[in-house]
Amino acid sequence: MRLEGESSNSNGTSRPFSNGSGVSPLHKAALSNSANGTRRSSIAMNGSSTTNGHSHSGGKQRPSYFGHDREEVTRILIQALTDLGYNGAAGSLSQESGFDLESPTVAAFRHAVLHGEWTEAEELLFGGSTEEGGVSINGSGLVLQPGVDKNVMRFWLRQQKFLELLEQRDTGRALMVLRSELTPLDQDTGKLHFLSSLLMSQSIDDLKAKADWDGAEGASRHQLLSDLSKCISPSVMLPEHRLAILLQQVKRNQISNCLYHNTSTSPSLYQDHACQPDHFPRYPAKDLTKHTGEVWQVQFSHDGKRLASCGLDGTVIIWDVESWDVLQSLAHSEGGICSLAWSPDDTMMVTVAMDKDAILWNTLTGNIKVRLPRFGEPVSSVVWAPDGQTFITGCLDKEKNLCQWNIRGELTYDWGRAHRIQDLAVSANGHFLVAMECETHIYVYNFVTRELEYELDLKTKLASVSISQNSKYLLAHNVAGEARMIDLDTRETVRMFKSGEKAGHFVIKAAYGGANESFVVIGSEDGHVFIWHKETGQLIEKLEAHKGCCNAIAWSPTNPSLFASAGDDHKIRMFALPSPTLNPQP
């Protein structure tokens, strides 16, 4: 399809710090080695005296573990065993190694938070007297991360105290906490106003709904402990699930270095991970040849069971992905269908055409549900809102060029801009609407408020835009054969993908694809498919797909080993893993 205007944190490398030795008798019964904020069960502390609050090994120098600090490794293993529920094994490891997961002060602090003893929690966290006139303890409090605002941590603790008093229907004491404990901390005024409004809650359920809070008996205290633990030095209080996080980082690093990784299955920990090229869908598996003209777009349904294609012949063909039989052939336009979009539930589809027409179809029956009023110029693009109740059309006219419609065909909003829109994209989280004009500009709207957030001039004539499923990255493809990955929040270019082959005067749609959208895939004017590794920017495949321009690529949303390309040679080519039963049709 031609463009408009053309004729055709570290865990601490130093030893743990002392957290003070003064612990109240109540806390002595509550010393715990449980994982940070995730378990109510505990295992007994091993030994009575500790070195630096953790070890009772008598200061004996121990060898490192393959270059790693032996105490750090052991404490992480104790935490992991507790996470796994092996409390006895965790206790035995602590006893044999001479290392405790955490000091008595940390254990007492954990107990205080999980049991709602807020004055004690502040004393143990910060040391000395609290601002309420509490009794001083022997110690200076827990060692915090550099730059931590203590008043923020106090606010979190006192906010939990306030909410729990409201849950108990003790409005008088809750009001006193708001006035004398929360307000003097000089934190977010808006948050204080919100908390004040909760005093008017009609019931406990109303309170929980408004505050998005599950109560003292829910997970709120554990979540509070988790948040507070992130502010405490990791050498004193280990971050939650530290071993699991380290293992996940190892997996992510191996996956990011594996160019052909294309599965959502987690790699095994037993061996280093590497995928072979033969496990990548680089083989032509089948050609679909029912179109009688150039194929301009191809798109899988969200459930991956159907494939829709459209183009110059003015028809939409819907294929069964398992058998590749034609399920429906929807006639629309003599001038060519520019774009199509499945509804989120796959029961509807909008098609837009060169003949200035736009139609909403029932994909189950093949019948027309709504035909929109005729536009002034060709309708170039269409996308659905994530809720499936409205869709947005882009038009090459200077009027009604960016409009939102409901499924009854009623215009719900006209942005009233003078842009001539060539392509559209909506983020899956419903925040961004991106409109690409037919020259060099991209307009990024807040889809909720409908206000323009910013615009970008990419200096080169553009061909297509798309947004990653995580709603973070825009992919803008230009006629020079370059695709730019842009962070939608920071507006910064994250990575460039350059094929070296120009798109010329054609609309060639670039897209993300593969498992976890690990790849960027783009067609070219000479019929090739280029596939890049998204994280490294490395070109991993250049595949022959069509005689003539390759206009669009669609990757199956449910099968990462299958994608389709659409070309000017009237064909749709399916790429898959090697199979003796699937071969291209002549």
Number of domains: 3
CATH homologous group name of the largest domain? YVTN repeat-like/Quinoprotein amine dehydrogenase
- Say what oligomer this is: single chain
Q: Quick check: average pLDDT?
A: 86
Q: Tell me, briefly, the overall form.
A: globular
Point out poorly predicted stretches: 5-35, 37-57, 129-138, 582-586
How far from one another are the termini? 24 Å
Give the strand tally.
28
Just give the CATH class of the largest domain.
Mainly Beta
Q: Which structural class should the secondary elements be placed in?
A: alpha+beta
> How many helical stretches?
11
Q: Please state the second-level CATH architecture of the largest domain.
A: 7 Propeller
Q: Which fold name is given in CATH as the topology of the largest domain?
A: Methylamine Dehydrogenase, Chain H
Which strand order do you get reading across the main beta sheet?
Answer: 1-28-27-26
Rounded Rg: 30 Å
Q: Characterize the largest beta sheet: strand count, sense, and whether it forms a barrel.
A: 4 strands, antiparallel
Strand content: 25-35%
Helix content: 10-25%
Region (Disordered): 1-66
Protein name: WD domain-containing protein
Pfam families: LisH_WDR26 (PF23627), WD40 (PF00400)
WD repeats: 288-329, 330-371
Quick recap of the structure?
This protein is an alpha+beta fold.
